[in-house]
Amino acid sequence: MIYIQSERIIIRDLKEKDVDAFYKYRSDKELLKYQNFSTPSLDFAQSFIKEQKSIKIGQKDEWKQLAIALPDDTLIGDCAVQFTPEENRIAELGCTIMKDYHNKGYATAALKLLTTYIFKEFPIHKFKALVDIRNIASQKMLEKSGFQKEGHFIKHYWDENDHDWIDELQYGLLNTVK
Ligand SMILES: CC(C)(COP(=O)(O)OP(=O)(O)OC[C@H]1O[C@@H](n2cnc3c(N)ncnc32)[C@H](O)[C@@H]1OP(=O)(O)O)[C@@H](O)C(=O)NCCC(=O)NCCS
């Protein structure tokens, strides 16, 4: 299913044909050094994509992972959204773009389209995003997408790779669409 289409990108469900590209960037340790989502094998990626097809945006306790594709349908990354279990009128999101497509504004475009779509279609009051303080690209992406820095949590999450407690920033975007 296609959720959003613009001149530059499509936001749609992940498809079986995405699996090789998805596995390639989702197992790139350098790219994912500030995220704790891992894709240990191609089989895992295949099952993940299959499972994701039946998950709906806003489904209780589930993250929905959406493909970000070019107009010719080439996968370039993904964004994920969850209506938070503790307050389902607040949604959390994250985004990953393959290295070859970095710094071309794709993530910012995807976040703007996705947040506008969800604010229109669902009773969401606010988006939040948590970011490793060392992740400058992500902070820039969020700020360019209209998010504001709301909080700085000190030594707030455990980085499995670096074996250290790391500061985390919380960003927020209120619903001004409705
Ligand atoms: C975060 C991420 C999705 C951004 O994707 P992107 O498509 O390159 O993002 P955009 O092009 O929309 O914006 C990135 C901005 O960060 C800037 N940037 C990137 N790396 C930077 C760095 N090390 N220092 C300063 N600015 C940096 C870019 O110049 C750009 O800003 P500009 O448009 O003002 O020049 C991408 O870097 C990524 O996939 N990272 C790995 C996954 C991740 O950590 N996701 C964040 C979890 S929410």
The level of helicity is 25-40%
Q: Quick check: average pLDDT?
A: 96
Structurally, the number of domains stands at 1
Q: How far is the N terminus from the C terminus?
A: 24 Å
According to DSSP, the number of beta strands is: 8
Strand content: 25-35%
Q: What structural class should be given to the helix and strand makeup?
A: alpha+beta
Question: What coarse outline follows from CA principal-axis ratios?
Answer: globular
Explain what you see.
There is one protein chain. Helix content is 25%, strand content 34%. With 178 residues, the protein is α+β, with helices and mostly antiparallel strands. It has one domain (2-174): 3-Layer(aba) Sandwich (Aminopeptidase). An eight-stranded mixed beta sheet has the order 1-2-3-4-5-6-8-7, sandwiched between helices. The model has no long low-confidence stretch (mean pLDDT 96). Bound molecules: coenzyme A.
What is the compact description of this entry?
Helices cover 25% and strands 34% of the residues. The chain has 178 residues and is α+β, with helices and mostly antiparallel strands.
